Amino acid sequence: MGLVRKGISVIHFDETYFAQTKLLQYPHEDLDFRQMQHVNLFCEEDSLTILQKQLQKRKQKGITYIGSGNYHYITYIILTEMTKPFTLILFDNHPDLGNDQGHEESLLSCGSWVSYALKEIPLLQQVVIIGPTTISQHHFNYHHVVIFPFDGRHHYALKSILSAIRTQNVYISIDKDVLNTTEAETNWDQGVMNLSTLTYFLEAISKYKKIEGVDICGEEHLSPHDTVLPNYQAGFHKNEKANLAILKTCLKGSRQQTRGA
Predict the structure, then answer these.
(1) What would the pLDDT profile of 244-261 be if each residue is shown by its tens digit?
(2) What 3 state SS string does 13-54 have?
(3) What 8-state DSSP symbol labels residue 101?
(4) Mean pLDDT across the chain
(5) pTM of the prediction?
(6) Taking the CB of residue 30, how many other CB atoms lie within 10 A of it?
(7) Domains in the chain and their CATH numbers?
(8) Is 201 exposed, middle or buried (0-12, 13-18, 19+ CB in 10 A)?
(9) CA atoms within 13 A on the CB side of 38
(10) Burial annotation 231-251 (CB, 10 A radius, 16+ → b, else e)
C-alpha cells in the first residue's frame, strides 16, 4: 500500500514557503497564485474556476502544500479529481463542516469545504476527522462522517481508527492546527496532538491503505519583511520541521509501496 500518486506541488498564495528552504530543496512543482483575488478564506466562483483549471494541469499530484489554513478549501478542488471511491481522512483542529445556523453557505470556504465535498463528490464515501478540539453536536449529525476528538487526556488505538476507514483508497488532508503550539504555529486556534502521533497515524494508514494523495496546510502568513524578525523565524522553522516530518513519512510509505510492487 502507500502513496499511489507521485511528486510534490507547492502552492504559493503568499511568500510563506520561500523561507522554508529545506522543504523547497525537494524536487517540486510550483504554482503561483499570489496575484489571485477573492480567494482568502472564501473562494468566489470565477476564482474557483481558474484554480480548478490550474490545478488540473499540474504534473506532481502526490503531495500538495497549500499554505495557510485560509486556503484549505483547495482540498475540495483536488478531491474532485479522484477517480475511485475513497475516504477523506482529515487531521484538523476544526471539522470544516460549515456552521450550525441551519442555512447553506453560498461560497466555498475554508470552514465549509468538507460539507461541500460530501454533497458534490459522489465518489467520496465517508470522512474520518481526527484531532479536533473545536466541535459541536451539529458536527456529529452528518451522515458518513466519523470524528475522533482529541482532548489530550486519552488516546485512540490505531485499530479503532483503521476500522473506521471502510474503503481501500483514501485521501489525506492535514491542517497543522491539529498540532499543539510547541510543534506548529498557525493563524488559527490549535489542538493538542503531538507531531509524533500524527506521523504514527500517517505511517500506519500508509501501510494498510492506498493513499491517492496528501495535502498539508496550516502555515502562518509570512511576508518577505517578516523573515528577519526573530519571532517569525522561530515560527516558520517550527512549521518547516513539521512539514519535513510529514513529507518524509509520506515518502517512506511511497517507497514501501514501490518495493512491494
Answers:
(1) 999 999 998 665 554 444
(2) CCCHHHHCHHHHCCCCEEEECCCCCCCCCEECHHHHHHHHHH
(3) S
(4) 90
(5) 0.93
(6) 12
(7) 2-260 (3.40.800.10)
(8) buried
(9) 11
(10) ebeebbebbbbbbebbbebbb
